[in-house]
Design brief:
InterPro entries: 4Fe4S_Fe-S-bd, 4Fe4S_Fe_S_CS. It comes from Methanobacterium veterum. The protein has 256 residues and is α+β, with helices and mostly antiparallel strands. 30% of the residues lie in helices and 16% in strands. The protein has one domain (2-249).
Length: 256
């Protein structure tokens, strides 16, 4: 099956690609093996995302990205223990985390391209919204949310700090590809948007700009702190404090 071939190629890419290792940091590995899920392009939740208070009408559906879309392949790339442990201290993000966040996104983009190539080699069409010229972010809101795509694909639910908690935790990055090839959707084993969050609140004191409280996260404060890390570490930036040294760092805390 094509989906099995895609999964095998993803696993090989993460294990063997030189891009997944940082030479400047003693060949530090960035990503561990990912979780992969599939959502139907006709799932009614895509239209739900267009509602005000969810994301908004600017969020495009799979069909709007790719006419004739049938499926969305979504994946979660978890950071390695080396990167996660380096960022558990308080204060500014670790150098390892910054490299993982920025060099790791280069790996993520090339993984998106690999999936597109595999689909096109099987005479399918595919689009990775994050690589498309139509992709945009305005006022901290994008017209394609990787985390919401992962939620629809059954990979996890949201946390207090708006990260997405998977069965491999929240410390990592997401990616997705839309295709006109139909794959069987993954089971979505939850009903609530925050079902995997234990509401422990341990991410609140972890946030350097105090952008998180019991009601959620202030995106503007978070963004300003990221801008600060960029000025200090240009061209790299990041934080990840709310994703490390917390119960949901590398596991689903409600299933421990």
């Amino acid at each position: 099956m094509l989906l099995d071939t895609i999964k095998e190629n993803i696993a090989e890419f993460i294990q063997n690609s030189e891009q997944n290792f940082v030479e400047k940091l003693d060949m530090m590995q960035i990503w561990d093996q990912p979780l992969i899920g599939v959502a139907s392009a006709s799932d009614p939740l895509w239209e739900k995302l267009k509602e005000h208070g969810v994301i908004g009408p600017e969020h495009l559906t799979p069909e709007e990205w790719l006419p004739g879309a049938k499926s969305v392949i979504s994946y979660f790339l978890p950071f390695t223990e080396h990167i996660r442990s380096s960022n558990r201290q308080k204060g500014l993000p670790s150098i390892e985390w910054l490299y993982g966040r920025c060099e790791g996104e280069v790996v993520n983009n090339n993984l998106r391209k690999l999936i597109i190539e595999l689909i096109e080699s099987a005479d399918g069409k595919a689009v990775a919204p994050a690589l498309d010229k139509r992709f945009k972010v305005a006022n901290h809101v994008s017209n394609w949310s990787e985390r919401h795509a992962a939620f629809i694909a059954g990979l996890g639910t949201f946390s207090l700090n708006y990260s997405l908690i998977t069965n491999l935790g929240a410390a990592g990055r997401f990616g997705s590809v839309i295709t006109d090839i139909e794959f069987e959707p993954s089971i979505r084993p939850y009903k609530e948007i925050d079902e995997y969050c234990s509401k422990c609140g341990e991410c609140i004191p972890r946030c350097p700009p105090t952008a998180i409280d019991e009601n959620g996260k202030d995106a503007e404060s978070c963004s300003k702190f990221l801008d600060k890390t960029l000025k200090l570490n240009k061209p790299r930036y990041g934080c990840g404090k709310c994703q490390t040294a917390v119960p949901c760092e590398y596991q689903n805390p409600t299933r421990v």
